[in-house]
Specification:
By secondary structure, this protein is α+β, with helices and mostly antiparallel strands. It is built from 4 helices and 13 strands. Among the domains are: 151-254 and 317-335, Beta Barrel (Lipocalin), CATH 2.40.128.260; 257-311. 33% of the residues lie in helices and 19% in strands. It has a 6-stranded antiparallel beta barrel with strand order 2-4-7-8-9-12. A 3-stranded antiparallel beta sheet has the order 3-11-10, with no helix packed on it. α3 (257-284) runs antiparallel to α4. The chain is elongated, with a radius of gyration of 65 Å.
Length: 338
């Protein structure tokens, strides 16, 4: 029996359409099922042990939790600052307490008996000798006060420091010289204490600018005395004499007689020549007058130079080793030298 032929109606779904739809659904369902299974497997592997599996609620979104800001950190504790006034007040209180304790200790200390202390012995006044030139107001042999070194005095006038010139003295150059003491000098009162050892250095000065023609001694004075230990004292321009006590020093004196004689001769010749030229100049005419003028000018110039030669000061030399003495003008207080 043959089936009736299939009549195609426009807009009608054909059987081929159902077959095609089944194939498309099958092709889409298999990959979706495989993907869902793989996703479930991965979620199961990502859970930590002990975490409950809620298959029915895994798909729900995670509820939102309100954000709570962290509280600010607490500030570090502020270090305690000591009050300087309080510290100073505490130190004053401690000192005051220590003073009270010391006063209490002194009050409780037993007092020595009055009979145990011997009365002080009065000191005898120093003896004075009318025959001495200089007498000190204090005894020189008294023990030093407050541990200081005792000092002794060299009296002015009565003390002469023997010395000899160390450096050569020339009145035409310089103004200072040095001398060395030749004998030790002891104190004036007792003569037992050495005050100026031998070979001490004396610094002296001489005044050459005050010399005049005819002077034969060079005025000298002392400035300071330097001891071997380096201590120096002023001598207040005490005079320096020669070995026999005459003021000033001199070894050789040059009065420059040759210079004076030459100045006199040159001055006389020029003056005579000038007068002669003035007398003969009118007779010689113009050349004579010119010559007279030249001679007169030259004579005046040379006369000015020779006038200084006529005012020549003497040259006084003092050789090294010349004996001398220093006479003190003021008291000299020194410590005893060892």
């Amino acid at each position: 029996m043959r089936s009736a032929p299939y009549t195609t109606v426009p807009g009608m779904i054909r059987p081929t359409h159902f077959r095609t739809l089944r194939i498309v659904l099958l092709a889409l369902g298999i990959p979706l099922a495989l993907g869902a299974g793989g996703l479930a497997y991965l979620r199961s592997q990502a859970r930590t042990p002990g975490q409950e599996v809620h298959a029915a609620t895994d798909w729900l979104p995670t509820p939102k939790v309100a954000y709570a800001p962290e509280p600010p950190p607490e500030p570090p504790p502020t270090p305690l600052v000591e009050d300087p006034m309080a510290k100073r007040w505490a130190a004053l209180q401690a000192q005051l307490a220590q003073m009270h304790n010391d006063i209490a200790t002194l009050k409780n200390r037993p007092q020595p008996s009055a009979a145990a202390t011997p009365p002080p012995t009065p000191k005898a006044p120093p003896k004075k000798h009318a025959g001495m030139l200089y007498i000190s107001h204090e005894p020189k042999d008294a023990p030093p006060k407050n541990g200081s070194t005792p000092t002794y005095t060299l009296a002015p006038g009565a003390t002469k420091i023997a010395c000899h010139v160390e450096t050569v003295v020339d009145s035409d150059a310089g103004e200072t010289f040095t001398a060395k003491t030749t004998t030790p000098v002891y104190d004036t009162a007792t003569g037992k204490h050495l005050l100026v050892p031998q070979n001490s250095t004396i610094l002296g000065k001489y005044a050459a600018e005050g010399l005049l023609y005819g002077n034969e001694r060079l005025p000298t004075m002392s400035l300071s005395l330097t001891l071997p230990n380096g201590h120096s004292v002023e001598l207040s321009h005490s005079p320096v004499t020669n070995g026999v006590g005459t003021s000033g020093l001199a070894s050789t004196v040059n009065q420059h007689y040759g210079r004076l004689l030459g100045a006199v001769l040159i001055t006389g010749v020029l003056r005579g020549g000038t007068m002669a030229m003035q007398g003969t100049a009118p007779l010689l005419g113009v050349p004579g007058q010119l010559s007279a003028g030249l001679v007169q000018t030259g004579a005046q110039t040379i006369h000015q130079q020779q006038s200084r030669a006529l005012d020549t000061r003497p040259t006084i030399m003092v050789n090294a080793g010349e004996p001398c003495h220093v006479i003190l003008l003021k008291p000299l207080t020194l410590e005893e030298q060892v």
